Amino acid sequence: MDEKTTTHINGRKLTAELVARVERCEPDPGPEPGTTEHTDAEFAAMVQALLLEYSPQELWIFAYGSLIWNPEFDFLECRSATAYGWHRSFCLKLTRWRGTRELPALMLALDRGGSCNGLVYRLPAQDHFKQLGLLLRREIDANPPTNVPQWISVKTETGVLRALAFVAARDGPAYAGKLPPIQVAQVLARAAGHWGSAAQYLFRTVSMLEEHGIRDRNIWRIQSLVAEEIEDS
């Protein structure tokens, strides 16, 4: 997709040029006080628990946000899929990565209710333990975590699959709950961390959703509001 591609819905357009206005990197503050990094043994135990719950012949991963534009794993197949009973939501608070202690960011997770259109990736058949371990290290940072792995059912054009997804634990310390779109937009237009800006994260997500023909009314509304916030600042 051309970097100048815009994404919009009934309002202003979030563009790469607008994102560049707020793009910056902040020093990494490290783990939030009261949390720690997971150890290798803890990651191994999480993977073991997942595979005891469900040991698939074919390992599928459901993607709804950054895993769509930056999967960072090898896959054999990709299909459109819908997760019923879950929706895409900026409900995780970040105080590092794309935010700081002083100006926390918000990140997407699956939250209960509604439905979510995304993609499922089929991973290679060998060494599911190792593949899941790498994926958990990427998606889970704080201990205790709020973005947690869970097997869910997703519907594809060829039938229902069981796939691993990352969902919001509502009792987790980073759970932000359901926020008004304007509040989400105000955060995303301003926050940044050592991985870059929250606006960049939103732009990449919306652009790739659009490329795959996925329209999420709430996310499209938020990107328009973020464009307004940046233009008016």
Please name the CATH architecture.
Roll
Poorly predicted runs:
1-9
Question: In percent, how much strand structure appears in the residues?
Answer: 25-35%
3D shape: globular
Q: How many helices does DSSP assign?
A: 7
CATH superfamily: Gamma-glutamyl cyclotransferase-like
What portion of residues is helical? 25-40%
Q: Which strand order does the major sheet show?
A: 4-6-5
CATH class: Alpha Beta
Total number of strands: 11
Order of helices and strands: EEHEHEHEEHEEEHEEHH
- Specify the structural class: alpha+beta
The gyration radius over C-alpha positions equals 17 Å
CATH topology: Hypothetical upf0131 protein ytfp
**What is the typical, i.e. mean, pLDDT?**
93
Q: Distance N terminus to C terminus?
A: 27 Å
Number of domains: 1
Give the biggest sheet.
3 strands, antiparallel
Q: What do these coordinates show?
A:
With 233 residues, the protein is an alpha+beta fold. The protein has one domain (7-232): Hypothetical upf0131 protein ytfp. The protein is 32% helix and 31% strand. It has 7 helices and 11 strands. The chain has helices at 16-22, 40-53, 66-69, 128-139, 181-188, 198-211, 217-232; strands at residues 7-8, 13-14, 36-37, 60-63, 77-94, 105-122, 142-143, 147-156, 159-168, 192-193, 196-197. Strands 4-6-5 form a 3-stranded antiparallel sheet. A two-stranded antiparallel sheet has the order 1-2. α2 packs across α4 (128-139). The chain starts with 6 loop residues before the first strand and ends with a helix. Residues 1-9 have low confidence and may be disordered.
